Amino acid sequence: MAIASSSFSLAAILLIIIMYCCPTGLVEAARKGPAAAGGGDDSAMRERYEKWAADHGRTYKDSLEKARRFEVFRTNALFIDSFNAAGGKKSPRLTTNKFADLTNEEFAEYYGRPFSTPVIGGSGFMYGNVRPSDVPANINWRDRGAVTQVKNQKDCASCWAFSAVAAVEGIHQIRSHNLVALSTQQLLDCSTGRNNHGCNRGDMDEAFRYITSNGGIAAESDYPYEDRALGTCRASGKPVAASIRGFQYVPPNNETALLLAVAHQPVSVALDGVGKVSQFFSSGVFGAMQNETCTTDLNHAMTAVGYGTDEHGTKYWLMKNSWGTDWGEGGYMKIARDVASNTGLCGLAMQPSYPVA
């Protein structure tokens, strides 16, 4: 009993010393034990990871790979939590989405490919005589029935084909009042010009050239997506669902010109879209705080399907992506407008293009 009393007295004395000498946070950490004081207990993070893995149906080849993926997840989760904690009302929100067990290097390798520099010029710009005051202050082509459901490129770097198809779907609906989901797979298999290489890389202008020269493109229902380039074009005999007469480039490095184009139809856009914030983007306007870093190295393609101004007064572009509805805002992303000189944020104004029906 004497030993127990001595131990109790010593513990009481230590607690009193801690209470008077240490900040409140350390007192609470002392009460909770070494994990809360920075001792490295991963139980909460591991529980978060296991729930994430179950929600996303994630399995791995062995325990070593799972352990490695847990470490990647933890690093990403800490980045996401820190970003969200530091952000204000205008800052975008990030989340541990389906890409949370990929390093950003892996993510960029899977989903990003460099775009070639096109020879822009000579094709005209049909909206060049339109004044900015003549177009709506905001527009959303989804609300006007010119945008099909968000698609998923999966493990194929085929963003270029999805971007081109979305732009053609848009102008086809605007001209015919008939919205048809078109075949991305046909572009992977058949649009094999000098810059188009299936799941490895491609350019939207090459896709537009193919559709023009081919006399059109099939419906997705007749030529469905298979998550890989098959190496053989199977378009023969399939009915044409939409056609275009050609395409034009938006004058480069000019967000006003891009606005005029998007006011009339969805536009294909190349940009730096595989940074860490893009990888985990959940909601809000990317670039609203001008601290979400990106470059002008064009490595991804989306489709500008609108523009507007949010409740905080931030002007944005509305982008349709091809990473499925479980990324971003149902597969969409808002990117800040008129915040970067010339190139547009992340280079989005450097080489936009659109089909002409």
From TrEMBL:
GO terms for biological process: proteolysis. It comes from the Eukaryota. The keyword GTP-binding does not apply. Residues 1-29 form the signal peptide. Keywords: Disulfide bond, Signal, Zymogen. GO terms for molecular function: cysteine-type peptidase activity. Residues 135-356 form the Peptidase C1A papain C-terminal domain. PROSITE patterns: THIOL_PROTEASE_ASN, THIOL_PROTEASE_HIS. CDD domains: Peptidase_C1A. Residues 49-107 form the Cathepsin propeptide inhibitor domain. Belongs to the peptidase C1 family. This is Uncharacterized protein.
